[in-house]
């Protein structure tokens, strides 16, 4: 059943709110049920007692459709999102109920937090057996077509294993921008502002091979095949990761939590790149050429380099592995040199860069990661 509170209060300013803070029944209820830390996290972004704020405890999208308060500026749902069936639809409905700039606050038990909880709950040795069985049934089964129906029929989609990446990625895909996240009582609480309308794929894929939208020749969007090395919905978090952690040496994102444990292994041994041979056969890529980039990463480049890039096909083996640049500026310089040379002598340039890259990969341990 939907539980929510709307307590009217005249709050002239935030100091006045703090004076009434402990007297408000909604605040007291949240403190008792979820603790002072959760209450403090929520009040950073909205006055709980204000009539424009709704505090919910629901896992049912139907209950959200029943909300009719058009003055709602903040929705706080204290049911963990692991228990919500059709999660994208749930987030999308919250997006519809909020005005531009409205706040959505929720929580999730992440994959890491779940592991901590299960290992602490059961005796040694048994705990790892329980953990791996739980992971396979509630993380792997929902993503495989052959086991998906079994999982949802058995669990009704409740208590799913969700990663931090997937949860935040779904929020961005559904039109939100994450303002802050904090671990409280072994759950990840997040505050997100409505920044636009949903843009997620209607049928997201979770399989081992997935297609990335990249900028190809003449600026056309191509789908590049790779083995999955990141958690689902990671693509939607590029801007978030860039703003939070910036870039590390080599032009990759620093502290990129989107990469899975298996993904790191795949990148180390170039396994993730193998499906791109499909693009080579299809003619989307050539053997040597600038790396196919996402729109966001492309936006970091100079206008001049952008124009040069779209004049030629991207490549399977980029000039990066011939020059081994360390910063984004050096990467752009490397690509400029390659493109200028390629325009004058295509075959000779690609042959030279191919053998330089091969030497670095085989003898200097250049890696995909």
As a whole number of angstroms, the C-alpha radius of gyration is 24 Å
Write the element-wise H/E pattern from the N-terminal end onward: EHHHEHEHEHHHHEEEEHHHEHHEHHH
Number of strands: 10
Strand content: 5-15%
The geometry reads as globular
Q: Give the % helix.
A: 40-55%
Unreliable stretches (pLDDT < 50, length at least 5) are 1-23
Number of helices: 17
- What structural class do helix, strand and pairing data support? alpha/beta
Tally the structural domains: 3
Mean pLDDT: 85
Sheet with the most strands, sense and barrel status:
6 strands, mixed
**Termini separation (Å)?**
47 Å
The strand order across the widest sheet is 1-2-3-4-6-5
Question: Could you characterize the architecture of this molecule?
Answer:
This protein is an alpha/beta fold. The chain folds into three domains: 4-110 and 169-194, Rossmann fold, CATH 3.40.50; 112-155, no CATH class; 209-363, no CATH class. Helix content is 44%, strand content 14%. It has 17 helices and ten strands. Helix 2 (25-34) packs across helix 3 (36-43), helix 6 runs antiparallel to helix 7 (126-140) and helix 16 packs antiparallel against helix 17. The longest helix has 18 residues, at 346-363.
Concise description?
The chain is an alpha/beta fold and 369 residues long. The chain has 3 domains: 4-110 and 169-194, Rossmann fold; 112-155, no CATH class; 209-363, no CATH class. The chain has helices spanning 14-20, 25-34, 36-43, 61-65, 87-97, 111-121, 126-140, 145-155, 164-173, 238-245, 261-268, 276-282, 295-298, 303-309, 320-323, 328-344, 346-363, and strands at 4-5, 53-56, 74-77, 103-108, 176-184, 187-194, 209-215, 221-227, 286-288, 315-317.
